[in-house]
Design brief:
The protein is mainly α. The chain is built from one helix and no strands. The longest helix is centred in the middle third of the chain and has 114 residues. The radius of gyration is 49 Å and the shape is rod-shaped. It starts with a helix and ends with a helix.
Length: about 120
């Protein structure tokens, strides 16, 4: 009877070990499946996030170029005004030089006429 009991316990333990081993293998497979699923979710999230970032960057670039164009138009107007002012300054400077020469000749003429009595 003792040997029958040992055989029964041995078969029972062997069955339990196989059951535990099978369950452990199933758990490992389930974990691996979950990890694969997690990786797919993360890959999908990353791709969607990158798409959104690209989209936002394109919108920001579009806005930036619009602002550049608006500023460029304003700068063009200001540069044109500056050009006109500088042209006017150049003309006035020439007129002043001409007036200075005329006054110099007049002063020289007056000085000569005062010396000739």
């Amino acid at each position: 009877m003792f040997s029958f009991k040992c055989v029964y316990n041995s078969v029972c333990c062997s069955s339990s070990i196989e059951d535990i081993s099978r369950r452990a293998q199933e758990m490992v497979e389930k974990i691996n499946h979950s990890r694969t699923s997690d990786q797919k979710v993360m890959d999908s999230f990353e791709e969607k996030l990158l798409d959104k970032v690209r989209e936002m960057c394109q919108q920001m670039k579009g806005h930036m170029y619009t602002v550049y164009e608006e500023n460029s138009d304003e700068m063009q107007v200001k540069l044109q005004e500056l050009s006109e002012v500088l042209e006017s300054c150049t003309k006035l400077n020439s007129e002043l030089l001409e007036a200075t020469r005329a006054l110099t000749h007049l002063r020289e003429g007056l000085a000569i006429s005062q010396k000739e009595p």
